């Protein structure tokens, strides 16, 4: 579907000047690049050139099929799942996550909500490979995440901070972001606290520049170096690994608190979904 | 940290962290779950780390502790976190004094090692990673991670979180005062820059004496590519 849109949109744009029709992820990124002077956003001209052919777009298509197919012991699709906007309502849902869900009494990120849906609605066992396999473009998880997220492309990050749990998690996440520990004394801000800083050749996004941060948190993204679509939780795990802290467990409350803070830090800026990263 | 913090002290710190969070557990909600909204954000952050199965806390580390011990902050980490690396003058003075006291000098004085070995150690980011992919120190030397943040010899691309060290020995000279400063900066940089981002390579037991000597040679030896 997305690929059809990609072809249709430049055509539509050429024929009429109706601004702000649905943008492609590439157009969203170009809009961010035009809005701020950022070495981070412009560091890879190759990625920008390749973005219209982002392999993650295939993952989105595969996710669409998977989402609507009856599956699991209960033989039902995921259309009955509520991602915060009502059952089956995906438009803009990911731009407003993590959020509090009354049915679980938890603040949940996209990944934990998908797991909840697969186990509670579709009836998969928690240790079913369909649920357990979290990484790689071929996994159900990455297909579903890519499709669901793509329905928030171009929309402003707007995680709700209405429920007290959402506020508590966001605020604890900020503490985690700045909490130095481990043998190297690192925290997230060691790498993401200043503008224009590099680890070796890689320009790092600054949490205080929302335009940069919007791209930084736009997952799933196809990571060229990994040749796979990667998730938010994969990024969190990778950062804790590099910081030498220890392994972050996907779907855990600490990981969701951190994601609550970092999504709030991108508030108001448009999501690039799916994105393409180094 | 490993040299400064005994296993006993680490254990006490861990117990203290649990005691703090156990205090919060008295605010249980009706369904038996701890009520996150009754805690301060700092208390909740500690609770999330230690009590919610958010990290593989029991995984062993290369330094012979566990991930749980790594997550317990020492005094320096606490102050630098709380002040976001801007300690008050009093805090900064204490950090500098503690850092000075932590530095152990090599017997027989500070000597330069082999700059060729130092060049590879400065480039390498290997070591101390745990989790889904554990660095096996018996297979490979622990690297200094220097190039992650510093430009050194310009034939390789370094980061810019720290200052450029290109030509360091050429401009500063290879004299005793410079060698002492460089050694102390690598061993515990809070000696000079309280709450710096740079790791305590010596004080935290990350690099052994010979590795520090080799990296120093890479920085200071006239033949090193850093100084060409």
Features:
heterodimer; A: 278 residues; mainly alpha; Cytochrome Bc1 Complex, Chain D, domain 2; 3-stranded mixed sheet; two-stranded antiparallel sheet; 12 helices; 7 strands; B: 228 residues; 2 domains; 10 helices; disordered N terminus
Question: Could you explain how this protein is built, in words?
Answer:
Chain A is mainly α and 278 residues long. Chain A has a single domain, classed as Cytochrome Bc1 Complex, Chain D, domain 2 (Orthogonal Bundle), CATH 1.10.760.10. Chain A is built from twelve helices and seven strands. In chain A, the strands form three sheets. In chain A, strands 6-5-7 form a three-stranded mixed beta sheet. Chain A starts with a helix and ends with a strand. Chain B folds into two domains: 7-72, no CATH class; 115-227, Cytochrome Bc1 Complex, Chain D, domain 2, CATH 1.10.760.10. Chain B has helices spanning 7-24, 41-51, 67-71, 75-82, 89-102, 115-123, 146-149, 168-172, 176-187, 209-220. The interface between A and B is large, with 47 and 53 residues.
Give the CA-CA distance, first to last residue of chain A. 25 Å
**How far apart are the termini of chain B?**
36 Å
Report the principal-axis shape of chain B. globular
- CATH class group of chain A: Mainly Alpha
| Largest interface, C-beta closer than 8 angstroms, per-chain residues | A-B, 47 and 53 residues
Strand content of chain A: 5-15%
Overall helicity of chain B: 40-55%
Number of domains of chain A: 1
Examine the coordinates and then state which fold CATH places here, giving the name of the CATH topology of chain A: Cytochrome Bc1 Complex, Chain D, domain 2
Number of helices of chain A: 12
CATH architecture of the largest domain in chain B: Orthogonal Bundle
| CATH level 4 superfamily of chain A | Cytochrome c-like domain
How is the biggest beta sheet of chain B arranged?
none
CATH class category label of the largest domain in chain B: Mainly Alpha
Protein structure class of chain B: mainly alpha
Into how many domains do the coordinates of chain B divide?
2
Uncertain stretches of chain A: 10-19
């Amino acid at each position: 579907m997305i690929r059809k849109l990609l072809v249709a949109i430049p055509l539509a744009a050429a024929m009429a000047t109706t601004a702000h029709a649905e943008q492609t992820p590439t157009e969203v990124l170009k809009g961010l690049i035009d809005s701020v002077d950022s070495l981070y956003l412009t560091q890879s001209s190759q990625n920008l050139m390749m973005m219209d052919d982002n392999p993650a777009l295939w993952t989105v298509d595969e996710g669409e099929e998977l989402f609507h197919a009856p599956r699991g012991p209960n033989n039902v699709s995921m259309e009955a799942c509520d991602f915060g906007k009502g059952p089956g309502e995906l438009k803009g849902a990911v731009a407003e996550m993590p959020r509090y869900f009354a049915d679980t009494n938890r603040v949940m990120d996209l990944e934990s909500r998908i797991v909840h849906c697969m186990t509670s609605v579709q009836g998969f066992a928690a240790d079913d490979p369909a649920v357990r396999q979290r990484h790689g473009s071929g996994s159900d998880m990455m297909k579903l995440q890519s499709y669901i997220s793509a329905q928030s492309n171009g929309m402003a990050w707007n995680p709700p901070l209405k429920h007290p749990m959402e506020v508590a998690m966001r605020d604890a996440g900020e503490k985690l972001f700045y909490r130095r520990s481990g043998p190297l004394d690192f925290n997230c801000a060691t790498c993401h606290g200043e503008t224009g800083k590099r680890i070796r050749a890689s320009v790092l996004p600054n949490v205080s520049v929302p335009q940069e941060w919007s791209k930084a948190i736009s997952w799933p993204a196809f990571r060229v170096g990994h040749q796979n679509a990667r998730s938010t939780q994969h990024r969190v795990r990778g950062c804790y690994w590099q910081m030498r802290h220890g392994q972050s467990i996907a779907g855990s409350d600490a990981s969701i608190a951190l994601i609550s803070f970092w999504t709030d830090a991108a508030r108001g800026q448009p999501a690039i979904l799916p994105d393409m990263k180094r | 940290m490993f040299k400064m913090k005994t296993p006993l002290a680490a254990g006490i710190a861990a117990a203290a962290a649990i005691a703090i969070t156990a205090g919060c557990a008295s605010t249980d909600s009706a369904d038996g779950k701890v009520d996150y909204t009754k805690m301060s954000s700092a208390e909740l952050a500690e609770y999330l780390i230690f009590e919610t199965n958010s990290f593989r806390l029991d995984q062993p580390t290369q330094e012979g502790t566990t991930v749980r011990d790594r997550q317990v902050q020492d005094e320096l980490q606490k102050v630098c976190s709380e002040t976001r690396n801007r300690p008050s003058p009093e805090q900064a003075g204490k950090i500098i004094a503690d850092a000075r006291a932590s530095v152990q000098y090599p017997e027989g004085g500070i000597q330069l090692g082999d700059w060729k070995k130092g060049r590879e150690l400065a480039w390498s980011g290997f070591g101390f990673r745990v989790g889904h992919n554990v660095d096996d120190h018996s297979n490979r030397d622990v690297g200094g991670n220097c190039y992650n943040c510093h430009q050194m010899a310009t034939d390789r691309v370094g980061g810019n979180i720290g200052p450029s060290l290109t030509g360091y020995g050429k401009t500063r000279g290879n004299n005793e005062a410079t060698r002492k400063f460089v050694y102390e900066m690598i061993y515990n940089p809070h000696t000079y820059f309280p709450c710096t981002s740079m790791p305590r390579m010596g004080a935290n037991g990350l690099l052994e004496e010979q590795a520090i000597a080799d990296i120093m040679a890479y920085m200071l030896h006239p033949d090193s590519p850093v100084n060409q």
